[in-house]
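Session log. Operator J.P. requested a structure for one protein chain; no other inputs attached. Running the standard single-chain path with token output.
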Amino acid sequence: GTTKICALIMDEADGAVLETRSANNAFLPSVHPWERKQDPECIFGIVRELVSELIKKYQSFRCIGVTGQMHGILYVDSSGRAVSPLYTWQDLSASLIRENRESYAGYLAKFSSGLIAPGYGLATCFFHLSVKEAPPGAVKLCTIGDYIAMRLCASSLPVMHTTNAGGMGFFDLLRSSFDVNTLETIGIDPFLLPRTVSGGEVLGETTGGIPVCISIGDNQASFLGSVRDSSGSILINIGTGSQISLVSSVPVSRGALEARPFFEDQFLLVGASLCGGRAYAILEEFFQGVLKMAGSPGGHSLYDVMDALAEEISEEPLIVNTLFAGTREEPSLRGSIQNISENNFTPAYLITGFLNGMVQELYSLYLPVREGGKPGYKQLVGAGNGIRKSKPLKRVLSRKFDLPLEIPVHCEEAAYGAALFALVCTGYFKSISDAQNLIHYEESDDFRKRGLR
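Structure written below.
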């Protein structure tokens, strides 16, 4: 993930998570403020250590699944070793302005029928090639998940699943392949791209003989690991960023919802907020700053206090727009706080306004689907620590979408989805839907308590 690396062990018989371990991710400093980089070799070292510890403790394993950031890229040499940092999905290189007053991503948009935005792998690659910053010795590019899976089974060539490839840009959803002709037109050598596959595949084995399966996109892994009923559920994931995802049988984008590859000839319609849960963290940092200004040492987390102050406000609410990091299409957009009066500019109103703003941003992405006809969704599934740790956020989500909110009993939903997919790859389950039957939800939610269903 963006901020941490997680490994979990799942019992394939009943879906129970036996143990979860995690570590902080490996960020790198940069002299350029638009770059967001991490250290792929350090990431692999952390993964290898986590896996080794768990193998030593539990000994017997059926398979290993992998997932990771789906937009970011790194470059590898002919031996499969990284020759660059990981440029994450937050990298803004492609938002820089070219000589003719348009951004690199804006220029690429002229050639793409789909979304191509700053942070997308091929937009970042195009920037590197344009300014001659592509690393010498690079023969392939890949996602961090592709890299980890390749290194775990000591392979020298990355392989990319379509759920990752769809986040690179210039990917043809109908043909399930990259648009090679257009890539050649804009000056990206298609040879840089790994072999892509749309189904399940075992890449190889660890030195101990454990099958390692192809890495899948973190958005799709999170959906797979959270949602038991794909066609009847909406998934909201709030972590560093936030996303709304729902399954579609056709790859047709709606409004700002982007169609992405899913599994078994289906697609995900996905809307992403770049700030997401980070918006609440920004507010917590603001309150920390106020304490420091007042002479308090501060330093301890304020999230529990903030959640306790969150109120159900009906009169003169603060209207908070949480686009603090803009959008993929318009990175320069910024947030705002409106409807301020002499009575409502208080911490409680501000906290509630932030929560409502975070949810409203996601709900606005969903409106084109709702207005296109009665979707028939039966439940809202919540994933990510941003939701799990905040009772008022759960309440705001359920009421805004007017659906019962279900929380999986297991945490680390993307890692759980990677494990389910690995069990399909190795034949333990015949289908994705069979694997999803292992998912169970917590017993209670605010919606049912209020007697609305």
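Operator note: The CA atoms of residues 117 and 328 lie 6 Å apart.
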